[in-house]
Design goal:
With about 325 residues, the chain is mainly α. It is built from eleven helices and two strands; from the N terminus they run H-E-E-H-H-H-H-H-H-H-H-H-H. Helix 2 packs across helix 11, helix 4 packs antiparallel against helix 5 and helix 5 packs antiparallel against helix 11.
Length: about 325
Amino acid sequence: MKEGERSPLLSQDSGGREPLLTSSCLGPAGGDWRTGLGGGRAPSLPLRRSCLQCLTFFSNFLFSLLGLLALATGLWGLAVKGSLGSSWGGPLPTDPMLGLVLGGLAVSVVSLAGCLGALCENTCLLRCFSGGLLAFLALEAVGGVLVAALWGPLRDGLELALRVAITHYQDDPDLRFLIDQVQLGLRCCGATSYRDWQENLYFNCTSPGVQACSLPASCCLDPREAGASINDQCGFGVLRLPEDMAARAAHLGGCSVPLHRWLRARARALGGFAVAVVLVQGAELLMAVQLMTVMSAGEGASVSRRSGGPAAPLGPCCPHPKW
């Protein structure tokens, strides 16, 4: 450049001198910059926006891992029991593991949408995440209202549910495990009495099998009999014995009354857990809405600066436009 010529890339002050580059080209009010996705220099996110992004990302990352774990557990359970392979081309299997699969899939998909939406600053994914949370909250509200409204009939139907479970004891491994755990934990047998097991096709005294007039091992007073594993034959022939002799081998009382007391004693804890889940989901929804609001405000400010704001001084970080 010849002496006396002025650089078109540098502004001059009133004295004709070329000043040093100002902070308007180096960054917003202090030169705080971060590297953008394309390798260029971009202004750093405000502190509020960064905190919202981090909280939304890490919380949804944790919930997505939990959802994927539930999904994998459900698929493993279906595969072990053969329900997964036998259901192709037929109706869906009536298996509790299917609920775990569907629940884990829904939680993982919604959480991944929130995680990626916060990471990539994608408002579309954040809207999908917010919609999924609203759907979860609506389903939980409907479920809570139904439980509160039908608590009396549900409590009264507990004995009937136990009788149905006793009838289908051998049909489903999950149901058998649940009944065994209830009888072992509450130290009971049957719905109202140990003789309710007569309603089971295999334990009925008219059955030709080896389990005729018998009880499950979970009804026994000492099913392990001082051993490491449960003795499956500890309840054989108990239904043939008189009541005083049967009391020496098995529990005679039914499970409906103890189970009702157990549920009533833990109703407050279950309600507290449900409230905690709703509060966590509400906090997630609030953070997503706040993040979308902050992102929209930042995009609006950027557009206004590009369209109607004063032109920034040109320098090495602001390339000269082509006229």
